[in-house]
Write a structure and sequence with these properties.
heterodimer, A: alpha/beta, D-Maltodextrin-Binding Protein, domain 2, 2 domains, 12 helices, 10 strands, 16% strand, globular, B: mainly alpha, MetI-like fold, 24 helices, 72% helix, 0% strand
């Protein structure tokens, strides 16, 4: 008992380390993915005391919004553009210098210049190799309404990247066609999963044959379970509406007290070593520094992304509303 | 020979004066729980007139119906399962009852998504059963699977409450019933069961509220509940206001559950009166039933403890070739244990005045404080976390993201469960003892501290064990409110599992179970009779 009181006293009395040149990063990308990269930044900048708070992108976005101008965060490193868009819309992000924005194709940056994409992930159709051969696969995401896929599709409607795909369909095909597509796929009784990971697992078990996911999850599974894992990715034909590239990106908080270090961090994410890390370690598309993606990916140039602003929050709300209207959510 | 009677509280309320040494801390604790509620009202008010329309939309009501159905099933099954388990380990001569007693409390250490994986991996498509027999349970997705997963991993709430109540049960009652010619079953029904009623309803309420706010298991097993609807608002639409409207509906639903529990609990209080000292707890001899009893506890342990452990070990082995075991888990393990122990102690201290006030000095105010403190359980954890982010960052920047605020958040989150167990224990303490102490010259505060508090031993230990276990696996509050860079075993498991690195998630998860086992064994050792 006395010991536990002592522990309690010690715990609550621990002072917070406060350095002159401190940088706090809120990372919606997990430590198991980007931890080693952020360690590199720490080693390269011994003068900056870097603190990283890991969490879920959407929850960290909500946290930043609730913290208001008192936020301890300097940089938000997000898993998807939507969370950055939400902050940008509420006027919480500072404009980035043109030298930073210029490093990335403007498709992958905020139209207001308040966040920048650092790595890309493409939407793919992942399939179970025991059930299907590459020849039998649909060439377009629009073909998933075909009754032959009844009961064989897995998707994750709560996933931000999936919702971005639906937003892209609404933008490129119009509301009516997007709605018809959602209803059409729903008529095929797709299985609903929690997230991309759960879809991949279900594909591995053979519970479904096709899954709508981001391309790089597969590589985590191959790393974790070996090459026998019976799932592979298939890209849709070049220019298909289902070919969408989402980005993970970063933005600097307006309330940051150390903007110089914050911009330095964003710059680091766009530097050659970091971009190579994304290409080799997380199997994503590098978006800067002329680094090439891993060999078996469809080149970025062949993926025609719809001309739209990924961070457009009103659209995301419209997408959620449409998903609820069609009963998908 | 002591004699004992069952006292039934008269419906006539005695006029009680509220002692300030209890009221002040209790009001503070109750007020703390108001923070998340205030935050929800603030956010929901931004929605304006559409709020009500949204709260009563057909879809909202449908999801609410799903939630109610799941909650009823899980609560019922957990209660039915816990009753024999608690009875066998606390009141009979079951071989190895001390070890079983600890093992049966452990399933609650598994984060609920692990519970979901266990059910899928055992009964689903391509699962263990499928591989062995070719049979698979098509109903694993939806209500069936979610009910099974939640029952297996939340029954310890009821089990721990029942154990504490059984240890405080006066064997004289049982003997009196037997000597009057009642058989075992009949004596059980007439003396033990009524004594367990508050523990049954209190534990049942905890399971119900846990089920209402759980997200991990239902998301994995694809059952559409209210917590998922809230998640969609936060995750998909970044809409904190509509999420708050939904959370308020959920709080309303929880309030109904609490009223129901108060109805079911009944007005009974049970305590010894009369001369004679307290005797050791009941030990019913099982005789030939012994092996049947062993089979039952072993079966539950197998399903709820060994099976998930097996899943974790399989994950660990499957990824072993590529696993970098160089990652240091010692610090997160120490952090987890230290912060959970502190949370257990703090929550216990916060709950004591509220419980004593609610049981001993019933009044409009004390009932209000108690209900308030209880309502914390119905809030989705993410709401508790965000509300403290809001108030902490804006009004207490010096405390924001420090251990002090983190422990405060744990207290708000786990106060209700602590309260439920303590209240049950208090109902078994004779108030005349305190009155006797007053006659002997103690002040009211001294009497409470020196007479009542020591008699709450079993209940307090069970409550501490409960908070410890739940803090060990706590995630949303830890992620948002812990000091930046503070890592626990639970955050390690989450970080790896969210990226499908199951092999890497297995090591911290197994360590989480091991540390919890040691701690619970230590806490429950205190149940031993004071010599």
């Amino acid at each position: 008992m006395r010991l536990s009181f002592l522990t309690l006293a010690l715990l609550t009395a621990l002072p917070l380390a406060s350095a002159q040149n401190a940088l706090t990063v809120y990372s919606g990308r997990s430590e198991s993915l980007v931890g080693p990269l952020l360690e590199q930044f720490k080693r390269a900048n011994p003068g900056i005391s870097v603190r990283i708070r890991y969490g879920d992108s959407a929850q960290l976005a909500a946290t930043l919004l609730e913290e208001g101008s008192n936020s301890p965060a300097d940089v938000f490193f997000s898993q998807d553009a939507g969370a950055l868009g939400a902050l940008s819309k509420e006027g919480r992000l500072a404009p980035l210098p043109a030298s930073v924005l210029g490093k990335v194709n403007k498709t992958f940056t905020s139209p207001r210049g308040e966040w920048v994409g650092v790595s890309g992930r493409a939407r793919v159709i992942a399939y179970n190799t025991r059930a299907l051969s590459a020849r039998e696969l649909p060439q377009s995401v629009l073909d998933l309404t075909d009754p032959r896929w009844k009961g064989k599709i897995g998707w994750a409607p709560t996933n931000a990247s999936f919702q971005a795909l639906v937003t892209a369909l609404r933008k490129t095909q119009g509301e009516a066609r997007a709605e018809a597509w959602l209803r059409g796929v729903r008529a095929n009784n797709p299985r609903v999963y929690k997230n991309n990971t759960a879809v991949l697992e279900a594909l591995g078990r053979g519970e479904v044959q096709l899954g709508l996911v981001n391309h790089y999850y597969l590589y985590n599974f191959l790393k974790d379970q070996g090459p026998d894992f019976p799932v592979r990715n298939a890209f849709m034909r070049a220019g298909d509406a289902g070919n969408l590239v989402n980005v993970a990106g970063a933005g600097v908080l307006k309330s940051s007290r150390n903007r110089a270090a914050a911009e330095r961090f964003v710059n680091f994410l766009l530097s050659k070593p970091a971009q190579e890390f994304f290409a080799r370690q997380t199997y994503e598309y590098p978006l800067a520094a002329g680094v090439r993606p891993a060999a078996d990916l469809l080149p970025l140039a062949q993926i025609r992304t719809p001309d739209m602003d990924l961070s457009d929050l009103d659209d995301l709300k419209g997408t959620v509303a449409l998903l609820q209207k069609t009963g998908v959510l | 020979m002591s004699h004992a009677v069952i006292k039934t509280a008269s419906t006539r309320q005695r006029r009680v004066s509220l002692p300030p040494y209890l009221t002040l801390p209790a009001a503070l604790v109750g007020g703390a729980v108001l923070l998340p509620l205030a935050y929800l009202l603030l956010r929901a008010s931004e929605v304006g007139p559409r709020a009500l329309e949204f709260a009563l939309a057909g879809r909202t009501l449908e999801v609410l119906g799903n939630t109610a159905l799941l909650t009823a099933l899980v609560t019922l099954l957990s209660t039915v399962l816990s009753l024999p388990l608690a009875w066998l380990t606390a009141a009979t001569d079951l071989p190895g009852r001390r070890a079983w007693g600890v093992l049966l409390a452990l399933p609650m250490v598994f984060p609920s998504f692990v519970g979901g994986y266990v059910v899928l991996g055992a009964l689903g498509h391509g699962g263990l059963l499928d591989a062995a027999t070719g049979v698979r349970w098509e109903g694993v997705y939806g209500l069936g699977g979610a009910t099974l997963a939640l029952t297996l991993f939340t029954y310890p709430y009821v089990y721990l409450a029942l154990r504490a109540a059984l240890r405080d049960f006066d064997p004289a009652l049982w003997e009196a019933a037997r000597s009057l010619g009642h058989g075992g079953w009949s004596a059980f029904g007439r003396t033990v069961l009524p004594a367990l009623r508050p523990a049954l309803t209190g534990g049942g309420l905890l399971v119900a509220l846990y089920t209402v706010s759980d997200f991990g298991a239902v998301a994995l097993l694809q059952y559409d509940t209210f917590s998922r609807a809230i998640y969609v608002q936060y995750q998909g639409a970044f809409d904190r206001s509509l999420a708050a409207v939904l959370a308020l509906v959920l709080v309303g639903f929880a309030a109904l559950l609490m009223l129901l529990e108060a109805r079911l609990r009944g007005p009974r209080v049970l305590y010894r009166s009369g001369s004679g000292t307290r005797r050791p707890p009941l030990r019913v001899l099982l005789g030939p039933w012994r092996w049947a009893a062993c089979t039952l506890v072993a079966a539950v342990t197998l399903l709820a403890l060994l099976l998930p452990l097996t899943v974790l070990i399989v994950w660990l082995l499957r990824g072993l070739p590529g696993l970098e075991l160089g990652r240091d888990l010692l610090l997160p393990a120490v952090s987890s244990v230290a912060v959970s122990a502190a949370a257990a102690l703090l929550t216990l201290l916060a709950a004591l005045p509220v419980a004593i006030l609610a049981v001993r000095h019933r009044s409009v105010l004390s009932v209000l404080i108690e209900r308030l403190a209880f309502s914390g359980n119905a809030l989705p954890p993410i709401v508790v976390a965000l509300s403290l982010v809001f108030f902490g960052a804006r009004y207490l920047p010096g405390l924001y993201q420090t251990f002090a605020l983190l422990l405060f958040a744990y207290t708000v989150r786990f106060l209700p469960q602590t309260l439920a167990v303590l209240r049950t224990a208090l109902l078994g303490v004779n108030p005349h003892l305190e009155e006797a102490a007053r006659l002997l010259g103690c002040s009211a505060a001294q009497a409470t501290w020196r007479v009542t508090v020591p008699l709450l031993r079993s209940g307090a230990l069970a409550a501490a064990a409960l908070t410890f276990l739940t803090t060990m696996k706590e995630l949303p509050v830890t992620l948002l409110l812990a000091p930046t860079g503070f890592e626990t075993l639970a955050t390690e498991v989450w970080a790896a599992a969210s990226e499908a690195f199951f092999a890497r998630a297995a090591a911290p998860a197994l360590l989480l179970v091991a540390a919890s086992t040691a701690a619970v064994a230590l806490i429950l050792r205190g149940e031993r009779e004071p010599q």
